[in-house]
Amino acid sequence: MMDELYPSFGILMVDDEEAWLRSLGMTLGLSAGISNLVRCSDSREVMGILARGGIGLVLLDLNMPYISGDELLATIVQEHPDIPVIVISGLNQVETAVECMKRGGFDFFVKTVEEERLVQGVQRAIRMIELQRENREMQSRLLTDKLEHPEAFADIVSGDPAMRSIFRYIEAVSRSSQPVLVTGESGVGKELVARTIHRLSRAQRKLVSVNVAGLDDNVFSDTLFGHTRGAFTGADITRRGMIEQAADGTLFLDEIGDLSTPSQVKLLRLLQEGEYFPLGSDLPKRMNARVVVATHHDLGAKQARGEFRKDLYYRLCAHHVHIPALRERPGDIAPLLDHFLEEAANELGKRKPTVPKELPVLLSTYPFPGNVRELRSMVYDAMSLHENRMLSMDSFKRAMDKQGFSPAERSAALSAAGSVFLPSAPLPSAREIMDLLIAEAMTRASGNQSIAARLIGISQPALSKRLKKQN
Questions:
Q1: Boundary-marking domain end, from 137, 171, 196
Q2: Closest by alpha carbon to 292, among 223, 212, 221?
Q3: Residue 85 domain flag
Q4: Could you tell me the CATH number of the domain that includes residue 274?
Q5: What is the per-residue pLDDT across 356-399, written as a single tens digit (0 to 9) for each?
Q6: DSSP code, position 215
């Protein structure tokens, strides 16, 4: 399979010296991995090349026969104002540089003495163009409710409006070269999101996943960067790191919030410079993989406490996907239940059972601290015990009771939320409070007395008796 050109748009190099064009092309390729290059040694052909499209950046020499660089700069700025022009001159003259910038040049470099700065300037221009294109694409996608590739989200079962907006955002940023930060509580499906981003991106090869939690700095470096033979005691063979294995694909770093401070520094340098050194090697390697990271931690809070580097935090926040907890999208419980029942029935070789109509209602009253992963475990446990046509609710009730809140925990939650009574209003009577509590429980339980009784901690007969008295 041929490697995909980088960047996604063409870079037109204009100079009447063919040798210089070849040299510049090699420099950009070796130093920055830039391969989508178009060479032009005849200035009269430039406008025709731009008219055909596909060019996003121009590197323009000033001193050329036929049409000078000065003339071309003015014409390009006028007819293609969206294409930045970097001017390259053989003369180090401040006046010339200032005049070019006044005429609309994006940057100015001297040929013979600023090769490294020129490469950095081209990289800077590429990043700017990519961000501008991503912003335009994101605005376009977010203004419509339509998904262009709904099949990419097949593994994420959801009909929630908030999740739909997240899907549109994921489509908008999936082709970006910037890192993507995926956050959410444990069990919400962050790795599924990473896989979806990988499918939607331009990645040509596989997704490589690394859980960095608990890795010390040396193991982290060896895991990501690899090592050469003899790099340390026991390094008998050269080992390719995960970055190299993810070339032309996606590198997914899970539990990034648990990364040690020295490892954070190395990750930041990798993201900024796009290159790394295998352990024991003095030769840098280019990173050619999309980076997606995930964590259940609040990285903003961690960096405020000094536990996570601020510069790395802002670098990772270029694109941020936050997956809401399952309790925040109760409408997804029923379709997820059906999906996992189908999956479990196939794996266990059983017929998919009939679901009691009370079960989705019962599950909607549970906060699911383990989110989608916990619901899946509940379903598999219930299916392993299932024998009849109708699915039993007993195993679900046992699982929910195991995670039940104690009276002390309920009191703490109420205290944290503040008083449920208005200080300026008279206190309701005990009977009024009980009536309000029962009404709310019946609403949450969709009128099911057994479930409502479980919610407020009384027996179903006691609740039934109380409801009869109200009538």
A1: 137
A2: 212
A3: yes
A4: 3.40.50.300
A5: 999 999 998 888 999 999 999 999 999 999 888 889 999 998 99
A6: -
